[in-house]
Amino acid sequence: MHAVILAGGKGVRLRPYTTALPKPLVPIGDQHAILEIVLRQLSAAGFTSCTLAIGHLGEIIRAYVGDGSQWGLAVDYATEESPLGTMGPLLNLRHRLPDTFLVMNGDVLTDLDYADVLRRHRSSGAPLTIATYARKVHIDFGVLTTTDSKVVAFTEKPSVDYRVSMGVYGLSRATLEEYTPGLPLGFDELVLDLLAARTPPHAYDFDGYWLDIGRPDDYDRANAEFTTRKSLLLKGA
What we know:
Blueprint: E1 2-7, E2 27-28, E3 32-33, H1 34-44, E4 49-54, H2 58-65, E5 74-79, H3 88-92, E6 100-105, E7 108-110, H4 114-124, E8 128-138, E9 142-147, E10 150-156, E11 159-172, H5 187-196, E12 202-206, E13 210-212, H6 216-233
Parallel strand pairs: 1-4, 1-6, 4-5, 8-12
Antiparallel strand pairs: 2-3, 6-11, 7-13, 8-11, 9-10
Protein name: Nucleotidyltransferase family protein
InterPro entries: Mannose-1P_guanyltransferase, NTP_transferase_dom, Nucleotide-diphossugar_trans
Domain Nucleotidyl transferase: 3-227
């Protein structure tokens, strides 16, 4: 099994932590970088190879990870010379990828079964599988529905349930064939194109532990929780 880790972003929202370090290498706990945790998880799940799509401060990631042998993985690299969006980096290395593979952000902490995501993607026959997570938003106001300047409905402080992308995907190489290498391609554009073509993505619903480390508050939470979550995230470590 093969995985592509997207590790080329500048991590602007996580500054000042990412001023000198690429986002996937910010430390969690006393011993581990986020990317190390992900690589350990992939290896434990049975993945044998991985491509790191790097850009901003990518030479530091390359120096840290090397060939991946310390985690039992064969790691190679794809360098992003200019921003290409979430899925754009995959287009330039399409010829190096297997028929189906895992794609994920390099800043995700989760106990998601990565191998099962890929297995489910293969069995679904869908062009794309999206790992999803349930969220709830509490609205602190009374919500009005209006039509022609008239209030036609009212709900007092409702809650809205929805599912979000976890930043982990199963993808088929054939899904990328219609796109031009070297041009940006965002996850949003890909999903909208698939919906317009009536070839919808498959959803892999997950209700375990997931934390997207996008902001300083998320990073602080990850460090606060890591001691109690370590055995869950790094089984056998």
